[in-house]
Write a structure and sequence with these properties.
homodimer; 455 residues; mainly alpha; MgtE N-terminal fold; CBS-domain; Tetracycline Repressor, domain 2; three-stranded mixed beta sheet; two-stranded antiparallel sheet; 22 helices
Chain lengths: 455, 455
């Protein structure tokens, strides 16, 4: 049960075989590998070698490898192929959902050219239809390849049809049963079909119990598809139109990829990166993703400077007030990010809705009271021991308590409000909420300071 | 194809039926629902009603519903059952992987009691074995339920065995083929078995091609399992011991749940929350998860105060220097979090390794140069227009440029270093890196200020 590991030694072996032009060895080695592994080898050698390797592959395997390459490598490969070659060598050999992803990476002009070169008009029109579905919907995730039988067919006829359809579908999880109008009536699992052992002359209708089958429509949000498949532990879900006509299916592997991308996007957004970038992207791409948030932060910083400038006289009175500016700002930011992260996740998994916002706020007040009291008292103890200005010690601790309370409430309230107005609440975390808390927190700090020093 | 939606109306209908004690209606309604939906209804009514509903369910369905409940609700339910009842009504009716999760939620004492009440000694020893696997490994994710046939069996015998085993396994994705020593030789898909149409007297060996089957061992890290299943688009992967003996299987639904939990944990950690909490957890739990990071932030803030106190004379000279303290601190924090987030994701998907650290640092310097220059010049333009202290304007912009450079390098370097010493690099983001950047950034700011004002 040896599993080929694509490591540096393996890639070196391939490189050496290429140098001595040992095409026999290369062909047989590549034929044994999974497309994902071949793609990994190709990502590990330089572009010219990768192209030579690609030319050694059979059309079908080559097409599958193409889909597994890193997006920037694939772009380079596709630019070397004519529209006709892309249509005939690649598109014809991959599932419609992959084909749509690949077409989406081409310019509009090239996309149209490639589609015009697809021989089967039905295949071409399927693709055009799929390309029309909006991103992040079930339509954009689905493939039209599936195995379906008519409810009135005999088992013999159904098996013949399934065998033919099965050749084109990589993973057959389930056989869909439809009527003459292609309306989805239910499904048959292979397990059931295999174990039922009915006469080959009986019809599918005899074998199959009409059951409630979970399905989605093309405009169902992708998030909703993920939730359904997770909740009911599905590996595949059918897509039907409003009239119940079977259009396609979404498989769990595509849902897993979607989940991963979403998680990475959320993480990036929470870290103040405005688009999905990877560490091996160009300096230009990385800068473009990061600069917008930094400029927002800069504007925030300038606003905060204006707030503090209102209290210049106070700083002249006791410059020590400046010592705790970063502490007040940072603690406000930390509490705000914590609160908003909990709300953002609660909104995502729907444990928070409009009916329990008040309860959520009351709970946040409780948490903030405890955290604020503990932090303020710890800081007061420290300052009473090590600082000689009593007014400063009281100011800092009282301000810290207020800041933790306010940041907690804002961190809870803002994402809920954004969500209410259909803005992605994840925007609330990151620089935005931090800046707002800086402004409010320092305002409170100096206001309390003014009061304390006047006592 | 009506899909029952669990909404407020539906829950109200259930509540009303409970008030008028309409058990017939309740039983038939619940019987039509998926266990996950029943659990959702039970989460939507109060605890006493939930318990009444639970008592209406057949043992097997009740056990499945139990696994779908929220963890705190399940805890309450389990505490109402005796160890014997848990063993006989729940454990016997769920898969081993779920049983292990459930046992893990019990106290050690109760766990041992429950296991002692399991009738089948083989089942009990399977569970004890599974409980021994470490968290976040393949062993902890796997179930021992699977469908396997001996390679020397006739098709007739194999089908009989499969039918029997198939009753206990919810989703049969694949049939494993083993030899007399239970060594995994390969697999047969139902699709293949169904379409092969060989004589029922031929053996499995005739039907099946020994092929390279991807498998993992119980100590394979869960992360590695996720990567394999994602890379090769698997819905199930077998678990074998070192000798190749088949121990169990891991299904994609458990991997999807694991991925989701990991993503939530990473997001929480990046937001300064030390353990997985949900918005409906108690104030005490929420406080305990959040206070540790706040205290770290507090200590950081006190350290920053010490750094600034070194420059009290400078602040006395020009209190305006204090205006830009939050800006410098916040920008250092923002840049640090951005850089470290990109590195943390790169380490997670292995696009960063020891061989390209230098390249990564050079690229970060490039990004920081551009971002630093743009931000510093924008701020300089603003200050030259609106501020009357030339020394302050130059100080702030020069310090901002340096801080962006240094925060970028630290944000890149620290997670790589943590990873090198096997500490989770995600720790680097959040309050830790922010505090470090505050200290360094303000040190640079006042140091440059001292120099500029002396000119």
């Amino acid at each position: 049960m040896a599993q080929t590991k694509i490591n540096k030694d393996f890639i070196l072996t391939v490189k050496l075989a290429m140098e001595r032009m040992d095409l026999g060895f290369l062909r047989s080695t590549l034929a044994d590998l999974h497309p994902a592994d071949i793609a990994e080898v190709m990502d590990g050698v330089d572009m010219d070698d990768a192209k030579s390797l690609y030319r050694l592959l059979e059309d079908e395997l080559a097409a599958e490898v193409m889909m597994e390459l890193e997006e920037d490598v694939r772009e380079e490969f596709l630019s070397a192929l004519s529209s006709k070659e892309i249509a005939e060598q690649v598109i014809e050999n991959i599932d419609t959902d992959d084909a749509v992803d690949l077409l989406g990476e081409l310019s509009d002009e090239k996309k149209a050219e490639v589609i015009s070169h697809i021989e089967d008009p039905e295949h071409a029109s399927d693709l055009v239809q799929l390309l029309n579905y909006e991103e992040d919907t079930a339509g954009a995730l689905m493939a039209t390849e599936l195995v379906k039988v008519n409810v009135d067919w005999t088992v013999t006829r159904a098996v013949r049809a399934m065998r033919k359809q099965g050749e084109e579908v990589d993973e057959v999880y389930t056989v869909y049963v439809v009527d003459d109008h292609e309306t989805l009536l239910g499904s048959l699992s292979f397990k059931r079909l295999f174990f039922s052992a009915s006469s080959m002359q009986s019809t599918i209708r005899d074998l199959f119990e009409a059951q409630e089958l979970r399905s989605v429509t093309p405009d169902t949000p992708a998030e909703e598809v993920v939730k359904l498949m997770k909740k009911y532990d599905l590996v595949v879900i059918p897509v039907v139109n409003e009239a119940g006509r079977l259009l396609g299916r979404i498989t769990i592997d595509d849902v897993v990829d979607y989940m991963q991308e979403e998680a990475e996007r959320d993480y990036a957004m929470a870290s103040g990166i405005s688009q999905k970038v990877e560490s091996d992207d160009s300096v230009w791409l990385l800068t473009r993703a990061r600069l917008p948030w930094l400029i927002i932060g800069l504007v925030g910083g300038v606003l905060v400077a204006q707030v503090i400038s209102l209290y210049e006289h106070q700083l002249q009175l006791d410059p020590k007030l400046a010592f705790f500016i970063p502490l007040i700002a940072a603690m406000g930011g930390n509490v705000g990010v914590q609160s908003s992260a909990i709300v953002v996740q609660g909104l995502a998994n729907q444990s928070i809705d409009l009916s329990n916002i008040l309860g959520r706020l009351v709970k946040e007040i409780g948490v903030a009271l405890v955290n604020g009291a503990v932090c303020a008292l710890l800081l007061l103890a420290f300052n009473l021991l090590f600082s000689d200005t009593l007014a400063l010690s009281y100011t800092v601790s009282l301000a810290l308590f207020c800041v933790i309370m306010i940041a907690g409430l804002f961190g809870t309230f803002i994402p809920i409000a954004l969500n209410r107005f259909n803005v992605d609440p994840a925007l609330a975390t990151g620089p935005f909420i931090t800046t707002l808390n800086d402004i409010l927190g320092l305002f409170i700090y100096f206001w309390i300071g003014q009061f304390m020093y006047a006592l």
